[in-house]
Known about the structure:
This protein is α/β, with parallel strands linked by helices. Helices cover 39% and strands 19% of the residues. It folds into 2 domains: 4-14 and 90-136 and 172-404, 3-Layer(aba) Sandwich (UDP-N-acetylmuramoyl-L-alanine:D-glutamate ligase); 17-87 and 138-169, Adenosine kinase, small domain (2-Layer Sandwich), CATH 3.30.1110.
Amino acid sequence: MADASRVLLGLGGCVDYELKLTADVLQQLVADYGIVAAELISPATVTSERDLVVSILGYLARGGGGEHFVASAPALETFAGRFPHRVALGGTSVRAGILMSRLGIPSTLHLVSVNDTVRTLLPAGGDYFSSSVEDTYHPHLIVQYDQGLRIRAGDLDLTAPYPNRLIYVNDPANSDLLLSGDLGDRLSTADVFLISGFNAMRSATQLAHRLTELRTHMRRLPTGAVTYFEDAAYHEPAFSRQVRDTLLDAIDVYGLNEDELQSYLGHPVDLLSPAEVAAALTEVRALIPVPTLVLHTKYWAVTLGSAASRYADALDTGTVMAAVRYCHGDDFTDSDIARLRRQPRRPESVTFAAALHTRMGDTVHCVPGFALDVRNPTTVGLGDTFVGGFLAALARTEVDWTAER
Length: 405
């Protein structure tokens, strides 16, 4: 598939400030703001740099990841300015498109915000169109932290049990998520359509209107096109159900990660317990009754549905590419991909995958993750990269993947 019009990735994108936390800067901020251990619960709203630090520390203590709206854009700029940071393109659709381009699959991006940074960093060979009428620049703050990062200040003594990433956003363009009037025409030639970005919206009225507009545009999709929806942490959690209720009957594949799974269930899940995961998958499938559900985690990735095994190559490609990004970030080569494919899978994940299949039969297909020991891993964009790998594999096939809809 060499025609960019056959893969349409939406619905928004952004500029990211990517940084990695360091103990010295965080400890100084804890001291300067007088933050104490009793405060380390997620603030209802992040309205200042102090709130931002409290939120970050709460996640770091449990090794969690998440995404939040921040009421103060200057707080994001101030915090980013305290660390060396990298300017990159972000958003699920954009990162997926960048990865697909590396794999030789061009795509077309629907954007809601364009500026010189976006135009410079978008991959060559693809296409984009935008609903924006003028350039806008609202960078997202992407905070990474390593496993073992220790923060000791005042009465705080925290050590991150896992590496992870956090996303903090104040972006009016993505909050509005305007749709281009050309979207329907573009969809009329698409074989693969990615839906993402509704999680950034903050107005219930606007959300309802956008969803109605999108359904109208989607009527132009050809028979046999695959629609993949990637979930995310909603800035307004109640909006998640509204999006699902409106779009579910038009979605072929619905993807989410372990954080989103556990948020829906309202309790933690032991990701290496076949019994707990089988129960969790059954419960979330009742909540999200799509033809194929995809759950991608740090230990494994699984498809659930009557056509689960038909996505085996897509699931494995997504897993491989996410692992490559974890090890090498954006700076990977074809040799890095080939070398990683030869690495062993995590033994506990291999055992888990076999046990899950024994419990759930052919309704699941599970791909174990890799055994990786990386000193400075990349934790941002792993899910987006998984999606890009998954869709790249789909885009190479001639199969009518909607036969099970």
